[in-house]
């Protein structure tokens, strides 16, 4: 494996416009790499070992930073969900001309990769027809586009939860669908099953963001073949590598009549309740018998304790935020 040169240029460009002070000298990188044979006898592009920290900070960690601040930011996640709804409405009525002058929906043109219709599927096609709002069939899609993208009336944050690292919890971390199921169970237990004004539960979305250096839980540095001053291949295992971090976004556009009711806060409390069940538990570890010196200088084994002592792991704080403030202290559990 080698660092992607084009991806590095894209990351540097995005960092510049976002005001993130990271610099990667691509010309210097290309002058310093060599083509050598790896342990399997295959040719690979190899950077010098002295560039390991530079690649870590200015390519791999920069990628993770950009995903957190831009590519998978909460506002981006909201706009993505709104665009899905808009395109679903748009697809019902909007058509493009394909091969043999066949009228096709945008979904058909995309899935069939029609040679005539597919190149027409651009941002400009969708944006122009939504802004002009001249077609009666697209009225609902145009209104939703105006509300969300133009007026910026976006979804609210029922919950944003930083999941703990997988190695810190005993049980398997939930999927987005499992999280929603558990949230609705707690929601139904917290009050009446039907509020004063009903709402569609499928409008509450849970989407995730995975923040890593490009290979999820695997450290990319371990896969790069470096070379030393003699040109010999070297592999590194970086113990300073940050693990994969994951976030859940529970998003909802509440109807106006529900904004001032207890429904949004009940939803937020239910989501926090689910998140709190995936915190670190105390582990019970038997303590080794102590050995002390007798007056003669010999070591004596002191009697083992009657009950094993409890060694507490440091509990990770519940990292959440919400548009509907809830006292998170009610979810803090005391060790048994």
From TrEMBL:
Polar residues bias locations: 276-287, 317-326
GO cellular component, one term: nucleus
GO molecular function: dGTPase activity
Transmembrane residue ranges: none
InterPro entries, sorted: dGTPase-like
Keywords per UniProt: Hydrolase
A GO BP entry: dGTP catabolic process
UniProt key word Hydrolase: yes
UniProt xrefs under PANTHER family: DEOXYNUCLEOSIDE TRIPHOSPHATE TRIPHOSPHOHYDROLASE (PTHR11373), DEOXYNUCLEOSIDE TRIPHOSPHATE TRIPHOSPHOHYDROLASE SAMHD1 (PTHR11373:SF4)
Protein's name according to its UniProt entry: Deoxynucleoside triphosphate triphosphohydrolase SAMHD1
Gene name of this polypeptide: samhd1
